[in-house]
Specification:
Blueprint lengths: L1 E3 L4 E8 L2 E5 L15 E4 L2 E4 L7 E7 L5 E8 L3 E8 H7 L3 H4 L4 E7 L6 E3 L4 E6 L19 E6 L5 E6 L4 E5 L1 E6 L3 E5 L6 E5 L4 E5 L4 E6 L2 E6 L10
Antiparallel strand pairs: 1-2, 2-3, 4-5, 6-7, 7-8, 8-9, 10-11, 11-12, 12-13, 14-15, 15-16, 16-17, 18-19, 19-20
């Protein structure tokens, strides 16, 4: 995937199951060079060196201002685990930022699945779809959780949950409102403030959204269909 800093375009890519790097695609220069941490078995006990990361990297997404990266990965048992960290810290100050840097935050540990839909709500707020894994919930605390599919808005700077509401599964797009689309459920629009579903059209299943042209693209029977967003003008009576 590509991200943009103040100079040029850079590439974030996986180099091992538990390692990400940043490279300059024009020169091939590796910007996050570091020695791989090790995991050894000593007397039948696992011993890991500093910065060792027991985590499988997943879907990556860069914030609109190119300052933050979220990683929609997983850990063994398995369980979903979404993390975030600051890209500038990673490039400029600490090549280990993606492992255990000071900006790295756990956004949702203990998801039932991983690589589920995500979308940016603002420069620092990410929306994540998923379910809690009940096997990881303490029995005394289980009344605070639900098995429903949730949309959680989380601040990547500190990992705080700002809002949550129930949602259907599907592709996610945000532009003032939250758009959710799937073949089974159709096209739905949610009010991001209240979490209420305000529109539903079963005949539409959009795959991608272009935020500049305000257009959704659907593919049905090898035919392309474009749906465009329009703002309705409201005029006051004089």
């Amino acid at each position: 995937m590509h991200l943009l800093n103040s100079i040029n375009e850079l590439l974030v890519h996986g180099t091992k199951w538990n390692r990400l790097d940043i490279s300059d695609p024009l020169t091939g220069e590796l910007l996050t060079s570091r020695v791989d941490p090790e995991l050894k078995i000593v007397n039948n006990e696992p011993i890991s060196s500093e910065h060792y990361l027991d985590y499988f990297h997943g879907q990556l997404s860069v914030s609109p201002n190119n300052n933050w990266l979220i990683d929609n990965g997983w850990e063994w048992h398995p369980l979903g685990s979404v993390t975030s960290w600051n890209i500038n810290e990673w490039i400029i100050n600490n090549v280990w930022e993606s492992e255990d840097g000071k900006s790295k935050k756990s956004l949702w540990w203990g998801k039932y699945d991983w690589n589920e839909p995500v979308c940016w709500i603002s420069e620092t707020e990410i929306g994540i779809v998923g379910r809690f894994d009940y096997d990881l919930v303490d029995e005394d605390d289980i009344h605070n959780y639900t098995s429903d599919l949730l949309f959680r808005i989380i601040d990547v700077r500190d990992g705080r949950e700002l809002k949550r509401f129930n949602i259907d599964d599907g592709n996610l797009f945000f532009d003032e409102y939250l758009y959710c689309s799937s073949q089974d459920r159709g096209f739905k629009i949610y009010d991001i403030i209240t979490g209420n579903e305000i529109y539903n059209e079963n005949s539409i299943n959009t795959k991608v959204y272009h935020s500049m042209s305000k257009e959704f693209l659907s593919i049905v029977n090898n035919e392309l269909t474009i749906c465009k967003l329009f703002k309705e003008k409201v005029c006051d009576n004089v």
